[in-house]
Design goal:
The chain is α/β, with parallel strands linked by helices. The protein contains 15 helices and 17 strands. Bound molecules: 4'-deoxy-4'-aminopyridoxal-5'-phosphate and glutamic acid.
Length: 433
């Protein structure tokens, strides 16, 4: 059973002879029925909306459209040179082999020192697991702890992947929400009310993706009280935006009385050091949890890239001048974007204290149309802005809030100005139906 196919000459030969096709015989292909083959867990999994919207923006751009993508949460700065130099050195000297699954001892020591000096948290290297990104650290924790039917409270608006990771691990996401009038911060009382005998995890980020909200010392202390009173819940505190905090004061929930044994602190290099492509994150927590994450990771991916780890240890040991310079740039852009967006009628905007996102309430535009498209929800809004204004945003529905959309201001001033000009022009065409 063979198929004959017309094939274009390989690219390098085309340089000499253009557009010549020749016939090749390939074995025929049998196919499986994906509806039968795919696991129910995967069928019910949502694709990451941040990644989907970024890809949609790229697809439109590849057709020649000038798209301004404010969809992906990725710093627009390059990785600082001294970190890149450290990776070149690591590669040149042959640091290209497997590392221990939870990370090199050098990096885990540097992480312990970072926690001690910057966060007032004390860990041994055996309590640290370095992963291929904070995303994997969160997945490790969920897989290590959740049994079928266990509940994980997720504070909303939440980062897209928490919800799907919990589901994939067999858990039930229990969403506790706050709106823009509460600066998107659910209270300790709301969390307490959501706890049941099945609650195993509480997951949140501060500074928060997608809202940029930062929980205050008091708010975290109140949450810590609820957790210590209960005594059966592990807090997963995602602190990946630690350095992008405009209040100047990052508080780790693990520092409150009783919390060290009840907290997994997640962090990474993607945001503060602008190292998204290096794929490096880490968790620190009670030893039993680190051991379990180590076991999970050891069967799935092994240790993170060796040279990334060597460079990351050097990044952690250096001063924070580059991270602080990036923070200042984000701070200035936040103010710029808020002042530009305030001129667009019908948007409700708060003043986030960290990360690099704005999460405006766009619900005033629901029930409007421009003659071509109608907006009934946040998905429609994001879609309309991409196709009509060529500005990529992410619908709030992906983050558990259908009133808002997320804009990342990890972009140049010129792009931010042009994006807002386009949004304003486009939204002016949308009239009540
Ligand atoms: N947590 C939050 C809140 C994030 O925004 C992201 C996105 N980068 C991650 C975790 C995952 O980061 P990493 O690139 O380290 O996997
Ligand atoms: N965390 C980033 C975001 O929220 C990157 C994309 C992703 O990992 O989902 O856009």
């Amino acid at each position: 059973m063979y198929n004959t196919k017309q094939v274009l000459l390989p690219g390098f030969l085309n340089t000499f002879v253009s557009s010549i096709t020749y016939s090749v015989q390939y074995p025929s292909i049998m196919s499986l029925d994906p509806t039968k083959m795919l696991a129910a867990k995967v069928k019910s999994m949502e694709e990451s909306a941040t990644i989907r919207m970024a890809q949609k923006s790229r697809d439109l751009a590849s057709k020649g459209v000038h798209v301004i993508s404010l969809s992906l949460g990725e710093p627009d700065f390059d990785t600082p040179d001294f970190i890149k130099e450290a990776a070149y050195t690591a590669l040149k000297k042959g640091n290209t082999k497997y590392t221990p699954v939870p990370g090199t001892l050098a990096l885990r020591n540097a992480i312990c020192e970072k926690f001690r000096l910057e966060n007032n948290l004390l860990f041994e290297p055996s309590q640290i697991v370095v992963s291929n990104g904070a995303k994997q650290s969160i997945a490790n924790i969920c897989m290590a702890t959740l049994n079928e039917g266990d509940e994980a409270i997720i504070l909303a608006p939440y980062w897209v992947s928490y919800f799907e990771i919990v589901k994939f691990a067999g858990g039930i996401p229990v969403v506790v929400s706050a709106g823009i009038d509460e600066d998107f911060k659910p209270t300790a009382a709301q969390i307490k009310a959501a706890i049941t005998p099945k609650t195993k995890l509480l997951i949140f980020s501060s500074p928060c993706n997608p809202t940029g909200s930062v929980f205050t010392h008091k708010e975290l202390e109140d949450i810590a009280k609820v957790i210590t009173e209960n005594g059966n819940i592990l807090v997963v505190s995602d602190e990946i935006y630690e350095y992008i905090n405009f209040t100047g004061n990052h508080v780790s929930i693990g520092t409150f009385d009783g919390m060290a044994g009840l907290t997994a602190t997640v962090n990474g290099f993607s945001k503060g050091f602008s190292m998204t492509g290096w794929r490096l994150g880490y968790m620190a927590g009670p030893k039993w949890l680190a051991d379990a994450c180590n076991k999970v990771q050891g069967q799935i991916t092994s240790g993170a890239a060796s040279f990334s780890q060597e460079a990351a240890a050097i990044a952690l040991q250096a001063d924070r001048s580059e991270a602080l310079a990036m923070r200042e740039a984000f701070h200035r852009r936040r103010d710029l974007l808020i002042s530009l967006m305030s001129d667009i009628p019908g948007l409700k905007i708060n003043r986030p204290q960290g990360a690099f996102y704005l999460f405006p309430d766009v619900s005033e535009y629901y029930g409007t149309g421009n003659g071509k498209l109608t907006i009934q929800n946040a998905d429609d809004f994001a879609e309309a802005m991409l196709t009509e204004a060529h500005v990529g945003l992410v619908s709030g529905s992906a983050f558990g809030n259908d009133q808002c959309v997320r804009l990342s201001y990890a972009a140049s001033d010129d792009d931010l100005r042009e994006a807002v000009r386009r949004l304003a022009r486009c939204l002016a065409q949308f009239k009540k139906l």
